[in-house]
Specification:
The complex is a heterodimer of chains A (293) and B (251). Chain A is mostly helical and 293 residues long. In chain A, 71% of the residues lie in helices and 1% in strands. Chain A has ten helices and two strands. In chain A, strand 1 (113-114) and strand 2 form a beta hairpin. In chain A, helix 2 (24-59) packs parallel to helix 5. Chain A is flat. Chain B has 251 residues and is of the alpha/beta class. Chain B folds into two domains: 19-106 and 196-248, D-Maltodextrin-Binding Protein, domain 2 (3-Layer(aba) Sandwich), CATH 3.40.190.10; 109-192, Periplasmic binding protein-like II (D-Maltodextrin-Binding Protein, domain 2, 3-Layer(aba) Sandwich), CATH 3.40.190. A five-stranded mixed β-sheet of chain B has the order 10-9-11-8-12, with helices on both faces. Chain B has a three-stranded parallel β-sheet with strand order 5-1-6. Chain B has a three-stranded antiparallel β-sheet with strand order 2-3-4, covered by helices on one side. In chain B, strand 3 and strand 4 form a beta hairpin. In chain B, helix 2 (46-58) crosses helix 8 (206-221). Classes of the chains: A mainly alpha (293), B alpha/beta (251). The interface between A and B is large, with 42 and 48 residues.
Chain lengths: 293, 251
């Protein structure tokens, strides 16, 4: 990056440290923080939407829809995350390529699943093998978002389902007595009131999601923990910047990052809970009302 | 919306028609001098140079990708890349699931790295990387095996006393012993395991394997493979992995 860094083995002290910390690999490391933050920013709302859809489906009066919602919650919650992350992604990738192969491959091609191998014609590869490394990364990232959203969506669905059941029956009955339809009761009474019950559970999930991002590496996305381990590991003379085992320092840095991030989240969640408690028929809402008078 | 979908479809199909076949090479990127990620964040090491040269000779366009060792074979079978060039020893067990090219490195002796030269291998666990020939060897020879996902972790296990020694390719361990300032030493005892290192392909990819085989053969014949192996930054002038006279067979 800097002219002084052309021959790393001849420099020392502060210049060495500066060159070391701005090496190409370190820049990848810094970018991986952005990757993780972007992943969280996309996954959290998607998972919440999945959760809301799942919970609404599970509460449905139409039996097949209700089964669908319940099976989704039950299946994803019942499978260990790591199994899901290892199996589901390869399966999803193969299904996508299979669908594309049906459209673009010659129909004389053999069935893609042959024993242990999965084989489609070159044109059906997603992304194409000629695509740029960035396209491959983006695809891996998209698979990661979908997988995280499905897994965390199931947990969120369970939390939201419970929160919907927790809204006092009297509130809904009153609304019905005013002549509101089922959809109106759901939209105007149930959903606005259930958030305050869902928030502690959703806040927990958010914290777990932050800490689950190292699972990204299983999906082929190089995250901050991967880079910390890779950069911190002792480097022999094969490398430009040989050093001993520095993993402790890198992991300490990560610890600070995670602690600051979860602390900021906690503060945000506390504020949100306060806001949502206003005017609610809960102990929290009652406390706010008393404090105001 | 319909127009948008149509345009995307046309774009996708259009690019597939133009797509030149690109061969994707995969490596682990954590096993210097075989392969590692250098400080610029790129795949480097002996296998990087070898792979690039083989592609050039075979007239192929190649790109590199890295994959963790544990799932490197399943991802090959699933078609995420086409070739594994990752210091993978040719074994019967692996031959059952993938096809190997001819070896590009002769059988390498494996060495033990320990904290002291008189370490007793039977006195405690011996570390090795998961799914390697060394891990199988340790387990089969009555030593207590402790496995780690990356080579780096196997060495760390010896440093902090979790294992008495680590068994790995001597070419990987020697620079570590040299750079440790005497804290870690190679034991005298070496194990001759493995039948050379080759590139791995899907069973059904005979055509691609043939191209690489021919390229490796041509590199052996004109001596450029040995010249590459014995470079000081890779395996050094006395490398036991070099082919020597054997390389001239069948030229």
């Amino acid at each position: 990056m800097f002219a002084a860094c052309a021959d790393p083995k001849s420099i020392e002290g502060l210049t060495w440290a500066m060159c070391y910390l701005t090496s190409g690999k370190h820049q990848d490391f810094y970018w991986s923080f952005v990757t993780v933050l972007v992943l969280l920013a996309i996954t959290a709302p998607t998972a919440l939407a999945m959760g809301f859809a799942g919970a609404t489906a599970a509460r449905s009066h139409v039996a097949p829809i209700s089964w669908l919602g319940k099976i989704y919650i039950w299946m994803v919650r019942g499978v260990p995350d790591i199994v899901f992350f290892l199996f589901f992604v390869i399966a999803l990738d193969q299904v996508i390529e299979y669908a594309k192969s049906a459209a673009v491959c010659p129909s004389t091609d053999p069935y893609p699943w042959q024993g242990l191998e999965f084989r489609v014609c070159q044109a059906a590869k997603v992304p194409l093998s000629s695509a740029s490394p960035f396209a491959h990364k983006l695809y891996g990232f998209a698979l990661a978002v979908v997988t995280f959203a499905i897994v965390f969506g199931a947990f969120a669905a369970n939390v939201i389902y419970g929160a919907m059941q927790a809204v006092p029956r009297a509130q809904l009955e009153t609304a019905e007595a005013y002549g509101m339809s089922r959809a109106q009761v759901f939209r105007r009474i149930l959903v606005p009131q259930m958030w305050v019950y869902a928030l502690p559970g959703l806040g927990n999930l958010w914290m777990i999601l932050i800490k689950a991002t190292p699972l990204l590496f299983l999906l082929g996305v190089k995250d901050i923990v991967y880079y910390a381990r890779e950069l911190g590991g002792s480097k022999t003379q094969s490398y430009e910047y040989p050093h001993g085992d520095w993993r402790l320092w890198y992991f300490l840095g990560l610890m600070v990052f995670y602690l600051v991030f979860t602390r900021v989240s906690e503060i945000g969640l506390t504020r949100l809970t306060r806001r949502l408690s206003h005017g609610q028929a809960t102990a929290g809402g009652e406390a706010l009302r008393k404090a105001a008078t | 919306m319909k127009k948008l979908l149509l345009t995307t479809a046309v774009l996708l199909l259009g690019t597939t028609a133009m797509a030149q076949d690109v061969v994707r090479l995969a490596t682990e990127g954590a096993y210097p001098p075989y392969n590692f990620i250098n400080d610029a964040g790129e795949v480097a090491g002996f296998e990087r140079e070898l792979g690039d040269e083989l592609c050039k000779r075979a007239g192929l366009t190649c790109t590199w990708t890295t994959n963790e060792w544990d799932s490197i074979i399943p991802n090959l079978q699933s078609g995420n890349y086409d070739v594994i060039i990752a210091g993978m020893s040719i074994t019967d067990e692996r031959e059952e699931v993938v096809d190997f090219s001819q070896g590009y490195l002769a059988a390498t002796p494996s060495a033990y790295l320990a904290a002291s030269p008189d370490a007793d291998l039977m006195s405690g666990p011996v570390a090795a990387q998961t799914s390697t020939i060394q891990a199988a060897f340790v387990a089969e020879n009555g030593m207590q095996l402790v496995e780690y996902a990356t080579p780096e972790e196997t060495v760390a296990a010896v440093k902090n006393g979790e294992a008495v020694a680590v068994l790995a390719d001597s070419d990987y361990l020697r620079p570590i012993a040299d750079g440790s300032g005497g804290a870690l030493v190679l034991l005298e005892k070496m194990e001759n395991i493995g039948g050379g290192v080759g590139a791995a392909f899907r069973d059904s990819d005979d055509e691609l394997r043939g191209k690489f085989d021919a390229a490796i053969q041509s590199m052996k014949c004109d001596g450029s493979l040995d010249a590459m192996i014995t470079k000081p930054e890779y395996f050094g002038p006395d490398a036991p992995t070099a082919w020597g006279e054997k390389a001239k067979e069948g030229c």
